[in-house]
Task: structure prediction
Amino acid sequence: MQFSGEKLTAKRIFNYIFGLFLITLGVAFSIKSDLGSAPVSSIPYAMNLIWAIEIGVATFVFHAFLVLIELLLLRRNFRPKHFLQVFVGVLFGAFTSFSVSLMYFVPSADNIVIALIFSILSILFIALGLFFYVPTNIVPLSVEGVTQAIAIVTNKPFSKTKVYFDVTTVASALILSYVFLGNFGSVGIGTILGALFIGITVKYIHKINHKITGNHVNLKKM
Result:
């Protein structure tokens, strides 16, 4: 079976689902750290805090909105398969709810050292998740779909565009939190660290993989 011009193998499907799950684990660790959510979940988490929308539902709404932005950016180059990102948003939202529930079994971050460790784990899990699932070129999350679209339109590397997009997302979540809650809400030092270092971490994972395997992973393939 072909999908996006490539054979839809079991390995490709596994990398896709496994990568998505790793990202949601990263999101869960960021929330558990209590140092601010990961950039990818900063706006959904702000929606959760402001309007008490369940985190999985808020994640889906946010991703559906990003699909619309991607459509406006790519225009004629927006492919029918990209509409499937809306449905992937449902899966990602379910994974997010599940991963957050797993954190009940993880000790609380009752000191700054443990909190920072959780934030670092969040960055690593999200970066690894991106490295696994983006190159499968099945259906990207709308967050990565928009990042890919911006990278293509601006002719910039995916890793660098990822940093720019994450910073913009964090700034938007900060504004939302401050306007409606009067505080930083979903944004903290962990959110800022994620915005600055997730893209860079993906870049170095790519370099390490290339050095070990000799394979080049295309993170801008749509």
Notes: The longest strand covers residues 2-3.
